[in-house]
Amino acid sequence: MDLFPRGRPTVCTIDLDALRWNFRQAREKVGAQVKILSVVKADAYGHGAHRVAETLVEAGTNALGVATLEEGIALRERGIAAPVLILAGAYPDSFDELVRHGLTPTVFDAENLDRLEEKARRRDKPLDFHLKVDTGMGRIGFLANDIAAWLPRLKKSTPLRLAGLFSHFSQSESVEGEYTLRQLELFKRTVERIRGAGHDPGLIHLANSAAIITLPAAYFSMVRPGLMLYGAYPSAAMAEAIALRPALAWKSRLVQLKKVPKGTAVSYGQTFVTRRESLIATLPVGYADGYRRLGSNRAEVLVRGRRAPVAGRICMDLTTIDVTDIPGVAPGDEVVLLGEQNGERISADEVARWADTIPYEIFTSIGARVPRVYLN
Ligand SMILES: Cc1ncc(COP(=O)(O)O)c(C=O)c1O
Fold first, then answer.
1. Interatomic CA distance for residues 254 and 272, integer angstroms
2. Are 185 and 217 in contact (CB under 8 A)?
3. Segment 260-302, tens digit of pLDDT
């Protein structure tokens, strides 16, 4: 099957079988008793929220997590009926839409709580929400250490129903340090205080991918995997603890191949000048597609199963590579920017290092103009 769309040959393939496999690995780690909220925010980390959500619902996810109301509505409009939590908070001016689409808000401060309660009072059934507690991330959430001040705001007879209580780790790469353990302890104390005041906190959740892989003490009644579902590791060392399969591959083709003499400058600013007679190829992909410019003269791609370096600056829509050392290279050859070719692999982690960033940003930066093609 030719994966490339008509026209510009640049595409991301998403292997839904890999996604199912990764979900099963998460399920095996946490066991059948712990619920899984699959994080599909930011268009499922660039993998396409609708198809990913559909696949994960079929695979048995208990809930989905998005960042914004709009992301939640988009899932509903595509027929996704599973519980959807708006992780990054809901805003009072859009509570009507939230209720209409049956989305679950995260409440992170007292004003939010009061406004949601006002809204809920006009309904004939309770409105579920999850309460976000800040145990050390320092962004949204009721400060765990200030619980004495905010706990009385949780009333028992209210049209709101506390359906979940959660916090987020400040470490996403590794959760082994002291700081994480302090967050865990503070979270546990918060749960106890809330229970002690006579409230049922509902679902209790804290674990991100790193904690699912290495910190069972953080499982509680639900976990929130993101990155691992897409087959990337929070840190390389975790490959020993769990076998994940990358779901996304980013491919293009050589659209022009040129033999140039020694001393030829390639791309903007002449940052690459050939030191020998060279074969320079052009790919129809650039930083406007999310192929980060920081990878200029640093990143590598795969051609015929071998690595070829990016030569010169990555442009908005085009990238030049040096294929002098690739035997048999020919115009039209498939190029892998991220993924596998003939047994050689470029991981999201590697692409991230070339761009001084993290795999999360690589995935979520792949632009909307790169078609996503679903396999399996
Ligand atoms: C609140 C929340 N929970 C869970 C996740 C998933 O984290 P990860 O992708 O590291 O598994 C994220 C991701 O940023 C998040 O913001």
1. 19
2. no
3. 999 999 999 999 999 999 999 999 999 999 999 999 999 999 9
- Gap between the Cα atoms of 77 and 58, Å rounded: 18
Amino acid letter for position 17? D
Q: Are 275 and 341 in contact (CB under 8 A)?
A: no
- 41 included as an active-site residue: yes
Kind and range of the H or E run holding 359: helix 359-365
Tokens of 157: 């007879």
Q: Cβ(214) to ligand 1 under 6 A?
A: no
- 50 exposed, middle or buried (CB, 10 Å; 0-12, 13-18, 19+)? middle
Can you name the residues that pair with 162 across neighbouring β-strands?
129
- Top-confidence residue, 7 or 184: 184
CB–CB of 242/25 below 8 Å?
Answer: yes
Q: What CA dihedral angle connects 118, 119, 122 and 125, to 10 degrees?
A: -110
**Residue 47 in contact with ligand 1 by CB distance below 6 A:** no
The catalytic residue among 91, 188, 268, 374 is: 268
Alpha-carbon distance of 145 to 184, in angstroms, equals 13
Contact yes or no for 273/266 (Cβ under 8 A): yes
pLDDT in tens, 234-246: 998 899 999 999 9
Condensed to tens digits (0 to 9), the pLDDT of residues 3-42 reads: 888 889 999 999 999 999 999 999 999 999 999 999 999 9
β pairing state of 10-15 and 306-309: unpaired
Classify residue 304 as left (phi > 0), alpha (psi -120 to 50) or beta. Answer: left
Distance 316 CA to ligand 1 centre (A): 30
Please tell me the distance from the alpha carbon of residue 177 to that of residue 304, in angstroms, as a whole number: 42
**Greatest Cα-to-Cα distance within the chain, rounded to the nearest angstrom:** 80
**194: which residues sit within 8 A by CB, 6+ positions away?**
151, 154, 165, 201
Please state, as a whole number, how many other Cβ atoms lie within 10 Å of the Cβ of residue 340: 14
